[in-house]
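Ticket #4471: structure export looks truncated?
Reporter: QA, pipeline team
Priority: medium

Steps to reproduce: submit the single chain below to the structure queue and open the exported record.
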Amino acid sequence: MYLIFTKNFTKGYNKCMKYLQDIIGHPKELEIKKRVKVIDFFDKYGLVATKEAFENHPIIDAVFISHFDTDHVNGLAYLLKHYDVRHLFIPLLEKNEKTQLIIQNIIMEDDILFIRNLILNPINTINEINAETKTHLIPIIDQEKDDSDEEFSEINFETLTESGKLKEKKIKLISNNVFNGNWVFIPFNFKQLERAKKFNDLLNKMNISITDVASFEALWSKRKNDIKSAYRKVPGDMNTNSQVLYSGPNSKDSFTINNIFPLKKFYSSSLYKFCDNLSGCLYFGDYNASGKTKWKELYTKYKNYWKIIGTVQIPHHGSSHNYNKEINSKKPMLSVISVGKTNRYKHPHSSTFKNIIMDGGCIMIVNEDE
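Actual output as written to the record:
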């Protein structure tokens, strides 16, 4: 879950560029409230100061949801209830993809009513909690098409006054409140069907046929162990979609990190020496970047922005199934791994850690406490 808000975004270093630190999906509202924090980077003494999020200005301009796993969306209902969320951007799902996600949540015992409703009918579900939030559905892109030279359709946040599906083309979101429109947000909704297909193939070998949620629930009590066994044989998870987001300058000459805030004060001096000064960020969500084909698809879509990306959120909490060594191949990247301290999958994987270090990346772990 990525949150964008723009108050005081360009007004000097003190109280500038506020951001939420580590929103992690959690079923208990008390825990979510504890984790909604904000960093006012520098107080009057030049020290990093942490305060409650949106202390005097409870507005979130935009929330981007990468996919519908519990650990990525379970805090969303709380945000919608307690904050003025202006825009929500989520991947558009087809009917079979909705079924696949709900089945996965039932198997993982994460079938939460809010998330099920969000998958099945996102606009109505959001409106029931916060009628002022505009929900925008990002269509699936043509991953095989090389459209790197195709013009982006530029959309201003201020013109998005209705909920619904956005254009089926490359979109570039801007806001007049962020560096006069020179800072852009570029989401791509990638379809990922390989693991879901493997799971269905395994079920077919067991003579288990699932066509919708109702047929699955009818079989669940009778064939629960067989279904779980098939699920465990599929490496990684079965997310059918994952939205990737670029957030950064519209061109290479726009900004460096030090144009926005003094990096040396924020990071340790040892980390600063190795990190690039480029302000572009790429958020992978749980995108499966492994393998040449998946990497080529991703690289092609962001072809014009790789030279200004200095920070990446490592895919799927550092899972070995989703990482690609190409991420840190061109130069040292600040490689952020967002992960729960006691997560059941024991992310991040040691091989991901090793590859990032060997490739010259700078690792920063973000968890519940830091």
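Status: closed, not a bug. The export was complete when the record was re-opened. Leaving a note from the reviewer for reference: The first strand starts at residue 2 and ends at 4.
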